[in-house]
Write a structure and sequence with these properties.
With about 120 residues, this protein is mainly beta. It contains one helix and eight strands. The protein starts with a strand and ends in an 8-residue tail after the last strand.
Amino acid sequence: MLRCFLRSKIHMATVTESNLLYEGSITIDSDIMKMADILPFEQVQISNLNNGERFETYAIPGKPGSREFCLNGPTARKGAVGDKIIIFAYCYLKDVETSKFPPIIIKMDDQNNPK
C-alpha cells in the first residue's frame, strides 16, 4: 500500500504579487524551490492563513533571490499581496518507508527569507 505524506513545506511565506492575467500557477523564488525540493511544474497545495482558502496549482520558478511568491491566473483570486501562505508538496510512500522519511520544512520570515 502507498500512503500520501508531506514531502516539503514552505511555512508562512508572504504573497508578493497577484497576477490575474497569467495562465495560472504560483511563481516561487527558484532558490526557495530548490531548498524545498519542489520542481518546476510540480503540483503544490496552498493554504492561505488570511482567508482560509486552500487550493492546488503548480509551481513555476521565479528569479533566484527575488523572494517572490506570486499567485497567477485564477489563483490570484485566492489571495492578496501581503497574505501569509503555506505551500505543501506531497509524495507517496510504502509503509516501510514512512518511519525513515523526514519532510523538508522551511519557515519564512516577513521578508520571505528562510529562518
